[in-house]
Write a structure and sequence with these properties.
- By secondary structure, the chain is of the alpha+beta class.
- Helices cover 34% and strands 20% of the residues.
Length: 1014
């Protein structure tokens, strides 16, 4: 009674209009520019369409709650809310004059709305997450993971926050910052990180070499061992995760695919940029077999007069690309039809998407199910969803009309939390049991397998906390073991297993016995636990090898592949060789790549085993990638490639191995012009020169050329000039001859300029040679080229100062339209180091100088010009042509274009302000992945682009036109520019009408045809 009275008094004080904000807490202010009036909480509630059998209530709203960015519950079922006020506009990212805070909300009377409110902590600066456990509160407040002690649970911190980890990037980006604390079933605290925030994480005081680099992906931290590790890498900006009934982890993402299954050690598709390991080679794609927007049309909403509208196909697909918050329905009180449903908040679609999980291949696939909930309120911006004590779903609404990047200002004085639950009195739904912290250890052991998932997790967490303070009574472990051995329910057995592990009752002998368990999920967890703290025993290793041969579960095989990274290098091969014998998974999306990630570090350390795996493995990707890795070391270890070639020419070797070996060698030597041939190559190439497989013949020729075989050179010249040969063979021959710098090929390439099918290949090839006739020929033939060839011609002409001078003569004379020279290419000429050339560019494009005025002024001018009426009259077909000329070399839109820069299908094209900011001032917030490098080569070329690959011998540069592999010893000079690869002057070279056409096209909901004749 005393506690309740105190809470009521605190609530009354804090909710008084004069006392909502503490004296020293900055009062929030809004910078939102929209004229739209905010929907009232009552009207917003009326506009929510809920599933049959469910009801929704308004749990909390402004002014008592604002900017709810994350949610958590304690073992009393109270809701902890992280409020983020520091999130700001693009210019500042985070407003240092503001503070963030954590608020506790409790529904005492069980009517579905809160009636007690307590401010726990209000000193946050970049607060994104909150979680409860181990005697306090865990907080992500970049650059730190903080622990705020509250051992007596009086909702008052026992002391100052303790920094558990630091090094998280806190300024590179706003919306991809570290986030998402959740306790896993293994007792670790899990979190997420986005793609633009590149961090070096470690315990306070850790030296650089003791820190772990990380950008996009999933990580975890052990609360008592203080151990940090990256779990999986990739995607874009994960912002939501949960574990299913078997403890399998899934997370939600944005832009490139929404749902991903976490296999420890996985490397997923990234939106852009490279994985830290340069030998990744291949990446795992998303788990879902669908997207939640029509990728051929508009991905998001179009705002008209404050009303959200979207295309019918995107609406049917799920509402848009952006997802924030995820939970998996399981246990009571949910009906069987919803068990295992993945619920994710769709940010722009203003709804909850629902996917269903299914075993497929070695792991899972997710299928689309009908949307779970829809919201009419145009201010609704769902960012978090969490299952509560009674099986209710708490939904945090950021409540703003802005897009996910908040480019139209911040509305800080708004926020709602909705409570979605099955119909019926809320109190009746709750399990009749007290907080976990008040239960005996025996009761915890009993309730850890409760059908109420929320209660099960709280009991598991409490057991871990008690085990961290003192040893658990052996009788409790015996009880858990007995229940594990006798219970028929797989889910209950798993929860007993997790409890044994977290409390120290899962001995190695017990876990080893679990490797023979009939449940594939028990076997997976046993594998993970046996390798978590160090290499397993020889007995367990032998068991792993046996399982890798004979286990009939693809999931278990995948977990064995995942465990490879934890084994000593020499111990990996027996398990890996056994895993490689499963031909049924040759084309699996996950397993072969996990095997590769596991063996890659061991390839050079154990070449004999690696060669044996190439010869016997039934997973083509693994064969190719091992060969590729070994070939990169060919100059230092030529004997390894010699042994490999000898081994794969053995008559007993599967003939398909040859293709993969050649592919691996070709990829490794891409960009090499000459290499010392290894012993055995001549006989190997002779055996394959007349192969029935065209790819074997082609790859053999290309490699022979690299190894200096004159016969290969003659044969390639013949193929390139033979009009009767297949076009792919001729193109490949041209590329090989250019790479070899065959001077005799220049005349052939010049003769092919009028060949419509090969003109572009010829032009690209001529770029590598500084022949004095080339620029003249390109200009004289220019009007006869098709558009791709014209684009290639201009790219070749701007690559050398002497060539560029001829181009500028042609532009000055009017024989080449100045609009065909992109802003990127203008910048490239200005970066050439030739002051005379740079001046000529400025003279011919005087409008470039106008960009020296403030970008905001330019954006305002464009906004005034690009009115809805003006855009409605624009020629969108002409805009598409401009996009193809200026943007498609880097970006994809409507499924067409290159993948150098982000796919614009996942950009806010309906928001004119956002669009103009990114076009006029792309360097304002530029990721490390897109900083421009200027490279001067020893052959006179000046290349501009972004490095997307590096080996000891070569550099892979992504230019605006192509991906170019150059040898390091060809580089005379290079430097990195602090600007984006996308030029600032993109619009400056266009007329007002062209700008209108381009912008109108970028904002279209669907593709339009090119102008007639294009």
């Amino acid at each position: 009674m005393k506690y309740r009275l105190a809470c009521v008094m605190v609530f009354l004080a804090l909710t008084s209009p004069l006392n909502l904000w503490a004296d020293d807490f900055p009062k929030p202010f809004n910078t939102e520019n929209s004229d739209a009036s905010q929907t009232s909480p009552e009207d917003a509630l009326k506009g929510i369409t809920v599933p049959e059998g469910f009801q929704v209530t308004l749990f909390a709203s402004e002014p008592e709650i604002n900017q709810p960015i994350a949610l958590a519950t304690d073992d009393r079922g109270r809701l902890w809310v992280a409020e983020n006020y520091t999130y700001s506009d693009r210019a500042t990212n985070f407003d240092e004059s503001m503070r963030d805070r954590i608020v506790i909300l409790e529904d005492v009377d069980g009517d579905g709305s809160f009636d007690q409110r307590t401010v726990f902590w209000d000193q946050g600066r970049r607060l994104t997450s909150v979680e409860i456990g181990y005697g306090g509160v865990w907080v992500l407040d970049a650059p730190n993971l903080l622990f705020i002690p509250d051992a007596d649970q009086d909702d008052v911190p026992d002391g100052e926050p303790i920094v558990m980890l630091d090094g998280w990037d806190d300024d590179a980006a706003r919306h991809t910052i570290v986030n998402g604390l959740r306790w896993g079933p293994d007792g670790w605290l899990y979190g997420r990180n986005g793609i633009m925030a590149i961090s070096n994480v470690g315990i306070p005081g850790a030296t650089p070499d003791q820190r772990v680099p990380m950008d996009c992906g999933i990580w975890r931290f052990h609360p008592t061992r203080h151990q940090f590790e990256v779990v999986a890498m990739g995607t874009t900006n994960p912002w939501g995760m949960d574990w299913d009934e078997h403890g399998q982890m899934f997370f939600i993402n944005t832009v490139i695919g929404h749902l991903w299954h976490v296999v420890p050690g996985a490397r997923f598709r990234r939106m852009y940029g490279e994985h830290f390991n340069p030998h990744t080679y291949g990446v795992i794609e998303q788990t879902a077999d669908h997207f939640h927007w029509d990728t051929n049309e508009l991905w998001h909403d179009v705002r008209k007069d404050g009303v959200t509208v979207m295309t019918q196909t995107t609406d049917q697909a799920g509402g848009g690309h952006a997802h924030c918050g995820m939970t998996i329905l399981q246990g009571q009180p949910f009906p069987s039809t919803l068990q295992g449903s993945v619920l994710a908040l769709n940010f722009h679609g203003r709804r909850i998407n629902r996917d269903t999980l299914h075993r497929h291949g070695a792991t899972y696939t997710a299928r689309h199910a009908p949307d779970f909930l829809k919201v009419a309120d145009p201010w609704f911006r769902g960012v978090e969803i969490l299952t509560g004590k009674a099986g209710e779903l708490f939904i945090a609404d950021w409540s703003d009309v802005g897009e996910c990047h908040e480019n139209d200002g911040i509305h800080r004085t708004s926020g709602r939390i909705y409570r979605l639950a099955l119909k019926g009195p809320p109190q009746a739904e709750r399990p009749a049991i007290g907080p976990a912290s008040e239960l005996s250890t025996q009761q915890l052991a009993e309730q850890v397998a409760s059908p109420w998932e929320w209660l099960s997790r709280k009991c598991l967490l409490e057991l871990g906390e008690r085990a961290s303070r003192s040893e658990i009574d052996p009788e409790i472990h015996q009880y858990l073991r007995t229940k594990f051995d006798t219970d028929e329910s797989e889910t209950r057995r798993l929860r007993r297993l997790w409890a044994l592990h977290i409390t120290g009752g899962a001995t190695d002998d017990f876990l080893a016995s679990c490797l023979d368990d009939p449940s594939e999920h028990v076997r997976c967890w046993a594998i993970q636990f046996l390798t978590e703290t160090g290499p397993p025993s020889p007995t367990v290793l032998a068991k792993f090898q046996s399982m890798a041969h004979s286990d009939d579960s693809g999931l278990v095989l995948t977990w064995l592949a995942s465990a490879l990274r934890r084994l000593r290098l020499e111990d990996r091969w027996p398990v890996a060789l056994a895993l490689g014998s499963h031909q049924d998974y040759a084309d699996d999306r996950v397993l072969p790549l996990m095997v590769w990630y596991g063996v890659e570090p061991a390839v050079l350390a154990n070449p004999d085993q690696a060669i044996e795996m190439v010869a016997t493995c039934q997973l083509p990707i693994v064969r190719e990638y091992i060969t590729r890795r070994m070939t990169l070391e060919m100059e230092r270890q030529p004997e390894v490639i010699e042994q490999l070639l000898k081994r794969v020419t053995d008559p007993t070797t599967n003939s398909l191995v040859t293709v993969d070996v050649l592919r691996g060698m070709t990829e490794a030597l891409r960009g090499w012009r000459k290499a010392t041939p290894v012993a055995g190559w001549d006989s190997f190439s002779a055996d394959n020169a007349d192969s029935d497989n065209e790819e074997v013949r082609r790859l053999t020729r290309e490699l022979s050329l690299v190894f200096g075989d004159g016969r290969a050179l003659d044969e390639l010249r013949t193929i390139a000039g033979d009009g009767g040969s297949a076009l792919p063979e001729r193109r490949a021959a041209i590329r090989a001859l250019v790479l070899a710098r065959d001077v005799d090929v220049v005349q052939l390439l010049q003769s092919l300029l009028r060949d419509r099918d090969l003109s572009r290949d010829a032009i690209n090839g001529l770029a590598a040679f500084g022949h004095e006739e080339t620029p003249k020929l390109l200009v004289s033939n220019f009007n006869g080229f098709n558009l791709p060839a014209q684009q290639a011609a201009i790219a070749t002409l701007v690559s050398r100062p002497q060539f560029a001078s001829v181009l500028l003569d042609a532009v000055s004379a009017g024989s080449i339209d100045r609009s065909l020279v992109s802003a990127f290419q203008l910048r490239q000429m200005q970066n050439s180091g030739d002051t005379g050339l740079s001046q000529r560019v400025s003279d011919l494009w005087p409008e470039l100088a106008a960009q020296s005025q403030k970008k905001t002024t330019r954006i305002a001018e464009l906004q005034a010009m690009l009115t809805p009426e003006t855009l409605a009259k624009a020629d969108t077909s002409a805009g598409r042509l401009l996009f193809n000329q200026s943007c498609a070399n880097c970006h994809t839109l409507f499924g067409e274009g290159a993948k150098i820069a982000p796919d614009l299908t996942g950009a806010q094209r309906s928001n004119l302000n956002y669009l103009l900011e990114n076009i006029v001032d792309p360097s304002a917030t530029v990721s490390e992945n897109f900083k421009l490098s200027v490279v001067l080569l020893d052959d006179g070329r000046v290349l501009n682009g972004v490095f997307v690959g590096r080996t000891e011998k070569t550099l892979t540069l992504q230019t605006a036109m192509d991906q170019i592999v150059i040898q390091r010893d060809e580089v005379e000079e290079m430097h990195e520019s602090p600007v984006s690869m996308m030029p600032d002057e993109l619009l400056s070279s266009l007329s007002d009408q062209q700008i209108q056409n381009l912008i109108a096209y970028l904002m279209l909901p669907a593709q339009v045809p090119l102008p007639d004749g294009e």
